[in-house]
Amino acid sequence: MGLTTSxxxxxxxxxxxxxxxxxxxxxxxxxxxxxxxxIHSKSASDGTTNFYIPGTPVxxxxxxxxxxxxxxxDTARHFLSLRTLRxxxxxxxxxxxxxxxxxxxxxxxxxxxxxxxxxxxxxGAFTPHLIYKPTEIKEFVEYARVRGVRVIAEIESPxxxxxxxxxxxxxxxxSCPITNGHCxxxxxxQISLLxxxxxxLMTEVIAQVKSLFQDEVVHFGADEIKIDCWESDSQYNGKxxxxxxxxxxxxxxxxxxxxxKAMYWGDSLYLGEDGDIIQFWxxxxxIPKRYKVISYSGDFYLDCGLGNLNGQDGVWCGDxxxxxHILSRSIKSELEDSMFLGAENTLFGEMxxxxxxxxxxxxxxxxxxxxxxxxxxxxxxKDTQERLFHQVSRLWWRGIAxxxxxxxxxxxxxxxx
Length: 417
Description:
417 residues, alpha/beta, 17% strand
């Protein structure tokens, strides 16, 4: 499954049979989900339950508006169990979302097990038990694939990399002292742009990711790079730090190879080669047409409105984003169709763990899924509250925790609310 895979299907249902045709296996996955959502139930007087599809005959020809309908989960700030990740994949299939963006490593921890450099993981992870083994990752990627979900790994660098340098072998690949304050949030530390060991370790990380993740895209992060971090280090006196950083990123892109696409956060100093992907949240007007674009504006952040890591009110993206707020947003703005791939809900992990993941994502991501599959806010919003209520019920029944859309009373009597 990739960026160009068809998810189109046609479903026809009459009183005798249901017929589903699709261009690909993944189209069948989407069509089967639609079929499941058409089925209603009614309790009989004898205690049995009857299942039926109202309004037959029904013919549905369906396809997604966008190619990238994603959720980003952060497993570096709080380790998330594979059980939680698999449950997220199930829920994404139920909502016809097709990309899990796995923010797997960050400054806080390095849970990705490196087979040739195991000490990097064993010292960089929170504990030696909170790691993702290669066999587990391969099994998880396949679990996602058969449910119509791509898994894109993010190797956050050259910022947010303190966890890379905790083993003695690579202690000198961190340029900035851990406590020097040159970072967006603790713990601080950025990759050295001068140490030859930096490229040595990066080569191993990229090789490991390419061997475990089947997807055609690898995310290199490059978020919140702090130039003053390197400028505070005497090793960089007289050197053009910005050019050194861009050279490092170009080398990183070279190591990935021509067979993969690179993906970057929009504030990266280097944005890759023709056809690479920018995950952007600001104005799209200045992005060169040679790039593809994914939107991740603050309107799609799922960790807003819940305070920061110090328990203080307020974060940069403001209040909690409700499902109705999400549905009212523009996902494309001024971009040309040929550049725009889709959007993601992002859930960074400062205030998230296994216990809170599902209820923070659903049903707000269901609203995003509706927007990305169906089209403009006006089209997607028709009867959405009632349909979301039913979708939440389906999620609960399938074992996915979800916050309510509204009260049951208001769902039954929308005209009175």
